[in-house]
Task: inverse folding
C-alpha cells in the first residue's frame, strides 16, 4: 500500500495570501490601513501644547524685565511662600 501527498507539500503560504487579496479585490473591498493613537500619546501632545504656552509666557516676562516694565508684587510673593511651606 502506497500513500501519496503526506504532509504539507501542497501548501504555499504566499499563494494563499495572494488568493485572499484577489478575493478581496473581486468583492470590491480593498484592504485599508488603520492608525490608533494611544491615550498616553494624546497626553504627551497636550503637554507639548502647555510647554509652548509656558515658553510664550517666559518670553513675555523676559521682555518686561529687559525693558524695565516688570513690577514685583511683594504681597503675592509672600502669599506664595506661605502657601508653599504650609502645605
Result:
Amino acid at each position: 500500500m502506497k500513500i501519496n501527498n503526506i504532509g504539507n507539500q501542497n501548501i504555499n503560504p504566499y499563494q494563499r495570501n495572494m488568493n485572499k487579496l484577489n478575493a478581496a479585490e473581486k468583492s470590491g473591498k480593498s484592504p485599508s490601513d488603520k492608525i490608533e493613537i494611544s491615550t498616553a500619546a494624546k497626553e504627551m501632545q497636550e503637554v507639548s501644547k502647555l510647554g509652548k504656552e509656558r515658553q510664550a509666557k517666559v518670553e513675555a516676562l523676559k521682555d518686561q524685565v529687559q525693558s524695565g516694565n516688570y513690577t514685583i508684587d511683594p504681597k503675592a510673593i509672600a502669599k506664595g511662600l506661605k502657601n508653599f511651606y504650609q502645605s
